[in-house]
Design a protein that fits this description.
Structural class: alpha/beta
Number of helices: 7
CATH architecture: 3-Layer(aba) Sandwich
CATH topology: Rossmann fold
Strand order of the largest sheet: 3-2-4-1-5-6-7-8
Order of helices and strands: EHEHEHEHHEHEHEE
CATH superfamily: P-loop containing nucleotide triphosphate hydrolases
Strand content: 15-25%
Shape: globular
């Protein structure tokens, strides 16, 4: 199947900020005039979920597909609507994938439906997460996710942060790790995420993407 749309797969370490990036990325696509659907398939460790921002996203014309039913009860199951999206074409699709290789393994269920389509998987990197804190660890983590998802990454997203305690030093550390991972794997640094409330005037590798923070801890 060939269409003029792109299927984006957002993966990474649990807690790397994948969902935050996926939401902002989907919004950017919509602002470019694209028809967009965001698919929440994080059914392994559902701590932060794209579906929590359903009302805001759908108000922007972004269709939200998630594993929940009308009364709000969350189910550890995949919506059959996902298959319809993949088979019908038209909308750009942003997959918010669960963390780690366990979360990515859920994506493998759609391997057959993804064949022949323009699929681009981005690896979200946070240098402050323990299992991706060095280039060796980050590469090993990336390869585990690729194997589990049955997809190859096409780019790195440097999303190094400490939530509301993020500083420019975190951005510098993330930039250095992203550059090292890029050199080691041959993958480009596709985006360097800069939080809207963290000043950043330092030179960074990759296209800058200003991120608005939506996902907050329950006590915030």
């Amino acid at each position: 199947m060939t269409t003029d749309r792109t299927i984006w797969i957002i993966t990474g370490h649990y807690g790397s900020g994948k969902t935050e990036f996926a939401i902002n990325f989907a919004q950017n696509l919509a602002r470019q005039g694209r028809t967009v659907a965001i698919v929440d398939i994080d059914i392994v460790n559902p701590y932060f979920r794209s579906r929590e921002r359903r009302d805001e996203l759908e108000a922007q014309g972004i269709h939200v597909v998630a594993s929940n039913v009308a009364d709000g009860i969350d189910l550890p199951a995949l919506s059959p609507e996902i298959y319809g999206l993949l088979q019908s074409g038209g909308s750009d699709v942003v997959f918010d994938v669960g963390g780690d290789d366990a979360g990515a393994r859920v994506l493998a269920r759609f391997a057959q439906d993804l064949r022949g389509q323009d699929v681009r998987m981005l690896f979200v990197l946070n240098a402050n997460r323990p299992k991706t804190a060095t280039v060796e660890l980050a590469e090993a983590y990336l390869r585990e996710i690729e194997q589990a998802a049955r997809q190859s990454a096409c780019g790195i997203v440097n999303n190094t942060h400490l939530c509301d305690e993020t500083t420019q030093e975190d951005l510098k550390k993330g930039d250095q790790l992203a550059r090292a991972l890029s050199a080691r794997t041959g993958l480009p640094v596709a985006y360097h995420v800069v939080c809207e409330d963290v000043p950043s005037d330092i030179p960074l590798e990759g296209e800058r993407m200003e991120l608005k923070r939506y996902m907050k801890k329950p006590w915030e």
